Amino acid sequence: MAQRHWLRRVLISLAAAAGLIAIGFWVLLKFFAVTAPDPYAPKQPDLTIGPAALAVESGELRHTVVVAHLDTPIVADRNLVWCATAQIAWNELCGLAGGPVRMEKEPPLVGLLNRQDVGRGDLEEDALVALAGPGGPATAKQLRKEIERKFGAGFAPKLLAMAEAAPPGELAVYACFRKSLPYEWAFERLGPYLSFRGARVDCFGISQYLPSVEYERKTAAQVHLYDYKGKDDFIIEIDTRAKGDQLILAKVPPAATLKELVETVGRRMAAAKPETGLDEYADLKIPVIDFDVVHDFAELCGQPIASPDPKVAGKQLAAARQGIRFRLDEKGAELTSEIVIATCIARVRDLVFDRPFLVMLRKREAKNPYLVLWVDNPELLGVRKWQPADAAIMEDPLRKGPSGS
Q1: What is the pLDDT of residue 117?
Q2: Per residue in 274-329, pLDDT tens?
Q3: Cβ(223)–Cβ(284) under 8 Å?
Q4: Distant-in-sequence, close-in-space partners of 137: CB < 8 Å, separation ≥ 6
Q5: Between 20 and 30 A from 330 (CA), which of 25, 32, 141, 236?
Q6: How many CB atoms lie within 10 A of CB 266?
C-alpha cells in the first residue's frame, strides 16, 4: 500500500514537472514569435532616409539631367529627374515679385516656370514647407520652426543655410518636401541581379509567384496591373501605407516630352480596369533606385529681375540649387527634396589651388621642413585623361536647353 502511495506521488510530480516545462516552452514560443524579426511584417511609416548609394553633384552624371519643368524633351540614353519643389519655389518667388518673374535676358526656362503648371495643391500640405522673404537669420528661424513642426526635430535640412547666408536686403526662397510611401508588406530583394540595358543592377519584387505561399500572396495583392499590351508595354500601381498617394511604374514607349508621357500614362490608367495580383509563376522585378543628387539651375542666375516691387526690381538670382534624395526598394519609396533660390549669397572665400602653389611638410615647432614642393606646372599632378564622353557632356544641347542645368 505504501508503495502505491509512493508511486502515485512520483507520477504526480512528473506530471507537474511536465506541465511546467510545457508552460515554459509555450512562453518561449510566444516571446520569440513576438520579438523575432519578420521581413514580411508590415513596415511602419518611416521618414528617415539613410546615405544614398549614389550621392553626386549633377555635373558628375554623364547620362542624367535634373530638370525644372516637365516640358522637357525625352532624349535617348538620358535619365530625366524632375521634382515639384523647383516649381513650388518659383511660384513663391512670383508671389514675392507681384506676378510672373521677368528678366532682361531671360532664358526659355523662365517662361515655362511662369506658367505655374504645378502648385501647392498637387502636394500634401503637411509634407511641404515653402516660404519666400528677406534672406538672413529671421527667415531661416521661421523656416526651421516650420520644418521641425512638420518633419520633426531629427530632420536636418541641407540647403537652408544658403537662405540664412543671404545678406540683409536680399531675398531668399526655400522649399522642402518629404514623403514616405512604405509598403504594407515588404517585397523580396531578389538575386543575383537584373540586367538593365546591359548593366547588372539590384532589384526587388517576387520571383515565380506562388499564390499558395502566404507572404507572396499578400505582397502580390499590393500590385495592380493597368492596360497590359505586352512585356514591354504595361503600367502597374503598388499600394502603400500612404493611401492618399500613388506609386506608379510604367514600362511604356517614350513620348516627345516628360509632360506628354505623364499625360499618356494618366489617360491609359483612367481608361483601364486594373487587375490585382500576379499570374501564377510570373516574375515581378523592379530595379532598386537610390540616389541623392544636387543641381544648380545656373541659367536662372545673373539676370536682373523686372518687377513693380522696388524691393525685387533689379535684383539678380545668385543661386538656384535643388537637392533630390530618392529611394525605391523592397520596403517602399521615400523622397526628400529641397531647393533654395536667393538673390545674393554672402561672399565666401573659395580656396582653389588652380595656380602655382607650395606644399611643405615639417615637424611642428621645427625651424626647417622635411619636404618642400613648388608646383608651377601640371607634370606632377594627377592629370585626368581626356575622354570622348567629356566632349559629349560639354556639347549636350539638353544641358543648355530650357529645362536643363
Answers
A1: 95
A2: 999 999 999 999 999 999 999 999 999 988 898 888 888 889 999 999 999 999 99
A3: yes
A4: 164
A5: 32
A6: 13
CA dist 123 and 130 (Å) reads 12
Torsion sign (Cα): 347, 351, 352, 357: positive
Domain assignments of the chain as residue spans, ordered by start: 39-351, 357-400
Helix (H, G, I), strand (E, B) or coil at 23: helix
- State the Rg of the chain over Cα: 29
* Rounded-to-integer distance, Cα 92 and Cα 175, Å: 9
Q: What is the pLDDT of residue 404?
A: 46
Buried b (16+ CB within 10 A) or exposed e, 150-185: ebeeeeebebbebbbbbeeebbbbbbbbbbbbbbeb
Could you give the CA distance from residue 169 to residue 343 in angstroms, rounded to a whole number?
10
Where helices occur in 185-228 by DSSP H, the ranges are 214-220
pLDDT in tens, 214-225: 999 999 999 999
Residue 400 vs residue 203, higher pLDDT: 203
- In this structure, what are the phi and psi dihedrals at residue 92, rounded to the nearest 5 degrees? -65, -40
| Mean pLDDT confidence for 33-54 | 55
Instruction: Give φ, ψ of 305 to 5 degrees.
Output: -90, 135
Say what the pLDDT of residue 357 is: 82
Strand 102-103 with 305-306, pairing: antiparallel
- Cα dihedral 21, 22, 26, 28, rounded to 10, equals 20
